[in-house]
Automatic annotation (TrEMBL), chains A, B:
Residue ranges for the DNA-binding region feature of this UniProt entry: 28-47
PROSITE patterns hit by this protein: HTH_TETR_2
Keywords of the record: DNA-binding, Transcription, Transcription regulation
Lineage per the UniProt record: Bacteria, Bacillati, Actinomycetota, Actinomycetes, Kitasatosporales
UniProt cross-references to Gene3D superfamilies, sorted A to Z: Homeodomain-like, Tetracycline Repressor, domain 2
Protein name: TetR-like C-terminal domain-containing protein
Pfam family, one: TetR_C_33
Keyword Phosphoprotein annotated: no
Ranges of residues in domain HTH tetR-type: 5-65
Length: 189, 189
DNA sequence: GACGCTTGCCTAAAGGCATTAGGCAACTCC
DNA sequence: GGAGTTGCCTAATGCCTTTAGGCAAGCGTC
């Protein structure tokens, strides 16, 4: 029997691709085994369980997303940074819907603390530097930005915006404008 | 063998309760059969499939949520209405996490069109009457409100706000304030 | 109250995914 | 080329879904 050369790394990457193709919840050990033309049991030498596999895909997605956001953010500030952050986020979700779904997986606290999720939190706060908010306003604003971006992207992905003729791209731009204005107002107060 | 008196109705209600207790994705025909102390196959006389069951739970949740939002909205306008809408939404999600998750289920277009989702859309637009926005601004605003509320509630549910000491209730109030201010500004323009 | 008829719930069976235990053969390194 | 490691396989168990066919509980009728 020829050896295919499975590794945890390759399984996780293939799992991420599979997620983008058929949806994160359709990522199963069986499907992955089929993709490598290998028996399911063979995977268990490389990942502890199906849950382990999904967690690893989530961590990969968080990492990739953080990298792309960091890239987009480099050298920008204020509204520019806000828009770059928002767009990087949305673009990733559209390009990699399965990975994006994976990134929402609930991680246990230790795993989360060691994940790129921490970088996300930092970068969101970094954007707000341009608006000069004190605490607790800054935390409120972080939560609001996270909510809007995540909410928009996930509603868009689930087809929630397809009932109206208005271009989602226009709404997105309008929302970013609005958030910028809102944050500037909050700075004043 | 005693007859338990299964009906589609009872199965859906029990499924919704089960969802709140153990999570929507743990709602399985098997678990439901156990709850009624009945064999799994017996359920198939009342629901077409596991998917059918989940869809019905989703429709129930949408209906309940729309009812509660409508209640909260009655007799209110402007910021009052905005806050009532937001709170009804969040309260429902907190009280019924499984049902709320069910309400996010992707429905096929016809089912969605016949669901209470339509009432949700209407009510969201109704709130905006207090802010006198034209099109396409109104659609943008509907999308933004939906995004913020859904995003906040779902991040809160997945534990995303537990890393900071700031009370989520305060952030929620801050966000509603901000949205009200934002919409008033948009009216001016 | 006995009779049949509907129909609710059951048994049986097949197929899919997850997981573990143990085996053999394919690489690796001397 | 031989010894040892290890990668992938077979086998088996358990849970979930779904369909087909059977029996009896409860209904209405006389």
């Amino acid at each position: 029997m020829a050896r295919v050369g499975l590794t945890t790394e390759r399984l996780v990457r293939a799992g991420a691709e599979l997620a983008d193709e058929v949806g994160f919840d359709q990522v199963t050990a069986s499907a992955l085994a089929r993709r490598f033309d290998v028996k399911v049991a063979s995977l268990y030498a490389h990942v502890k369980s199906s849950q382990d596999l999904k967690t690893r895909i989530a961590l990969l997605a968080l990492e990739e997303l953080a990298d792309q956001v960091a890239d987009a953010l480099a050298g920008r500030a204020g509204k520019d940074a806000l828009a770059a952050f928002a767009n990087a986020y949305r673009d990733y979700a559209r390009r990699h819907p399965g990975r994006y779904a994976a990134a929402q997986l609930r991680l246990d606290p230790e795993t989360a603390a060691a994940s790129a999720g921490v970088r996300h939190a930092h970068m969101t706060r970094a954007i707000l530097r341009g608006y000069d908010l004190g605490e607790p306003d800054q935390t409120h604003a972080v939560r609001m930005l996270g909510s809007v971006f995540h909410g928009y992207v996930s509603l868009e992905a689930s087809g929630g915006f397809s009932h109206t003729a208005v271009d989602p791209q226009d709404s997105w731009a309008w929302i970013i404008d609005s958030l910028d204005a809102l944050l500037q107002n909050r700075t004043a107060s």
